[in-house]
Amino acid sequence: MNLLDENFPADQAALLREWRIPCRQIGHGVARLGTQDADIIPLLHQFRRVTLFTLDEDFHKRRLCHPAYCLAWLDVRADDAALTVRRFLRHPRFDSEAKRMGLVARLSDTGVHFWQRNQTVKQHAGWSRN
Question: What pTM was estimated for this model as a whole?
Fold first, then answer.
């Protein structure tokens, strides 16, 4: 499941749906509006194989790597959020739920910088030319 943080722009969420990228959003059918950051990690444990997309840098911590989810911090302009999510989901390194589980990633214009569960070194994957 692709889960958008509450702070994900509504127009960008609409673009994802227009592109037929399935996603749900915190505060809109999942949890309640105003869900605190401290409550999001326990929320993720209620789902199987969830990827959280957020504009909140607070979720970009190596200690948050877990086999049940992926945390993806969008370090881009809010207007580029949907495009960045789509690029990430289509990237050969991250194009399935199984490949994303256990990652804490920073998605930026230069690519994806990520920690992987049971790895100590931060890795980088440039954007594919899709």
Answer: 0.91
